[in-house]
Protein: DUF1801 domain-containing protein
Organism: Agromyces protaetiae
Amino acid sequence: MERTGIDVDAWLASVGGATGEALRALDALIAPEFAGLERALWRGVFWGGTDQDIVGYGAIRQERPRGASVDWFLVGLAAQAKHFSVYVNAVDDGEYLVRRLAPTLGRVKVGAAAVTFASPDRLDRDGFVAMLRQTRALATDVR
């Protein structure tokens, strides 16, 4: 995956229907929590081999357990075929933050570093925003 240089607001405006409405609503929750940091559209083949467009908030250099470090985003927002995903690259005391905070996020599924849900109304808004704030607070080298 790579940063595209495509204007995020223009891209969000181009996504139609209920998916576009949901992405814009989610962006309205996420973007203010990362004000002053990079907000970029990432595009390419993601884990599992699928082509993805991901709005990334905050630029980080992520260490990998095997292989070279990569440029990445602190938080990413994507629409999948049947759900939305928010990727959160934050670890607290050796545990991915989304796993620790899973009970506070609403009716969602939580993976190692991802929260997935069918629609934004499944999120507990207060818990979700609190997780975003903790993510930003934990990030020591984010731009």
About this structure: Strands lie at 2-3, 39-45, 51-62, 70-79, 84-88, 91-92, 95-96, 109-110, 114-117. The radius of gyration is 14 Å.
